[in-house]
Design goal:
Radius of gyration: 23 Å
CATH topology of the largest domain: Rossmann fold
Shape: globular
Membrane topology: Peripheral membrane protein
Organism: Phytomonospora endophytica
Helix content: 25-40%
Keywords: Antibiotic resistance, ATP-binding, Cell membrane, Membrane, Nucleotide-binding, Translocase, Transport
Structural class: alpha/beta
GO molecular function: ATP binding; ATP hydrolysis activity
Number of strands: 13
Distance between the termini: 40 Å
Order of helices and strands: EEEHEEHHHEHEHEEHEHEEHEH
GO biological process, one term: response to antibiotic
Length: 301
């Protein structure tokens, strides 16, 4: 499998602030690659360097076998970019926006119409952008990044501020984009998004990549407890203490009891013996647990 993106020891500082500190990774052709990190981790700066929007202070970047900096016009038709804050042309309809973006790459109106259908906005073709919902505007933004049929697509937090339904609709679109053979690079704050969509993820913090692996491999590598939840009120205090003794911590919020344990089979067997399986839920480690383990739990503004 050929490599679409190769980043080697890339560094970028703004005065005393180190934004990217020796980042290296590769993205294979057709891969869905995620970059995760808290605010200020260096995700967007890294992406902008790969896209050729910023010059690195040191290191090297190859995109489709070429250097994106200085601004490489040969790469522009081969990549699509959806920024955190895409600005549309004023007073144009959704179709007019796409036709205008397409014309910059020599693409005709028929392709714009096809892209409207791909992103589910055919019925909004005549609607001006300011009248679109947040999810519709994000889909139009992605359509603008795809209208010239790029080989590599960069998406910087495409589902930020969307409601759950709009997010899931956009996920379906992103799966379709990747399923057509395009390489997709995504930055996101949503762990469930990365876990569902990405073949591999890189977790960044303080300008460094901490780990790169498929989401499932990262989760398997985390030594985390299992959380077992059942409905409250079905266990006598003595039975509850006996089940938890030596294998679990318990928390009773009045509605449910949660056992936090590294020996789930023992707790589950005891609950079954007491016929206390009402509301049973078992949750192992998630990508969010990995993320917090690597980056910490303090609030990042």
């Amino acid at each position: 499998m050929s490599v679409s993106i190769r980043v080697a020891d890339v560094r970028k500082s703004y005065g005393d602030v180190v934004a990217v500190d020796g980042v290296s990774f590769e993205v294979d052709q057709g891969e869905f690659f995620g970059i995760l990190g808290p605010n200020g981790a260096g995700k967007t700066t890294t992406l902008e360097i790969v896209e050729g929007l910023r010059e690195a202070d040191a290191g090297s970047v190859e995109l489709l076998g070429m250097s994106p900096w200085p601004r490489n016009t040969a790469l522009l038709p081969r990549m699509g970019v959806q920024l955190q804050g895409t600005a549309f042309f004023e007073r144009l309809t959704a179709r007019e926006q796409l036709v205008t973006f397409g014309s910059l790459y020599g693409v005709g109106p028929k392709k714009a119409d096809a892209m409207l259908e791909t992103v589910g906005l055919t019925d909004k073709a005549g609607t001006r952008v300011e009248k679109l919902s947040g999810g519709q505007a994000q889909r139009l933004s992605i359509a603008c990044a795809l209208v010239h049929d790029p080989e590599v697509v960069f998406l910087d937090e495409p589902t930020a501020a969307l409601d759950p339904q709009a997010r899931r609709n956009l996920w379906d679109l992103l799966r379709t984009i990747n399923g057509e053979g395009r390489t997709v690079v995504l930055t996101t704050h949503h762990m469930d998004e990365a876990e569902l969509l990405c073949d591999r993820v890189a977790i960044m913090d303080h300008g460094k990549i901490l780990k790169i692996d498929p989401p499932a491999a990262l989760v398997r590598g985390l030594d985390a407890a299992t959380h077992i939840t059942v409905d409250s009120g079905h266990l006598a205090p003595a039975d509850l203490a006996a089940i938890a003794d030596g294998v679990a911590e318990t928390e009773d919020d009045g509605a449910t009891i949660t056992f936090t344990t590294r020996d789930p089979s023992t707790v589950l067997t005891a609950l079954a013996e007491h016929r206390v399986l009402n509301g049973l839920r078992v949750r192992g480690a998630t990508l969010e647990d990995v993320f917090l383990e690597l980056t910490g739990r303090e609030y990042r503004a």
